[in-house]
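Researcher: Please translate sequence to structure tokens.
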Amino acid sequence: MSGFPQTNNLKQIDFQKVDPVARDIPGPIHDSLQALIAAMEQEFAHILERARDHELRLQKAFADATLLSREQAARLLGCSVTQLDRLVTDGKLEVTYFDRRPRFPLVELQRFIAARTGKQPKSRRRCRQPI
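Model: Translation complete:
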């Protein structure tokens, strides 16, 4: 175990207090160490930023990869399963087969809903009109 404290920020380390030998480090070497620490901080910040970007891309890809069953897709579109099958047969809706079962990508259903001009999916519950 070294005499260095556990910290995430290298700037918080005071080399004079950490190790008595650090007092004996000549000025040019001490300056070189400080430059090395600054370069490492920049590199680690860049690596951390790239990891965050990668994590966001994975989250988006996972959200786009959601597959729905026939019943779930029909419920989302506000139609019957028979009408959903008709949309697939007519080529208006794309289907993916997973384990020999039809699955509908959520992105495809969202595209289909957006393409329907002015029509929103029907709600399963009907609200009463105000009198």
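Researcher: Any highlights?
Model: Residues 1-5 have pLDDT under 50 and may be disordered.
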